[in-house]
Amino acid sequence: MSKVVKIAVTSIITLLVGVVATLIIVIYVNEPEQASGEQSIDDMVSHSYETPEVTTDIMDNRYVQVQFQVIADDNDAIDELEKRDFQITNLLIKELAVMEVDDFQTGLDDLEETLKVNLNEIMTEGTVTEVYTIKKILQ
After folding, report:
1. In a designed cystine with 55, which of 7, 38, 65, 97 is the match (CB 3.0 to 4.6 A)?
2. CA distances (Å), origin 136, targets 9, 76, 101, 124
């Protein structure tokens, strides 16, 4: 082989190794956020919707006031949630109407999960990833 061919082959191999190394670095730098499946706090704030305050009675003729922060996977889902605020209020009233005081005081995790599941059933744009209780008053 001539000296020119050896230099060309060596240059091509070096270039290929550099490209492969760059691709591996780019893939692994972006992967940790996707692998965990969790949103960063900045994403959560930018993809969050605060429900209206809901005041309603529960089974034992007492009143509750609740409000939730709903986290979605993208801005399209947030836009849809804003349009569906009346449905969110309706879902909450129906769920709270069958709760007793003990359920309300200790079962907020269940209520958050139920709200998340019910919202995802009616959503057409994006999905709800988390629901957090941000206000809870029992009267």
Report:
1. 65
2. 70, 28, 12, 29
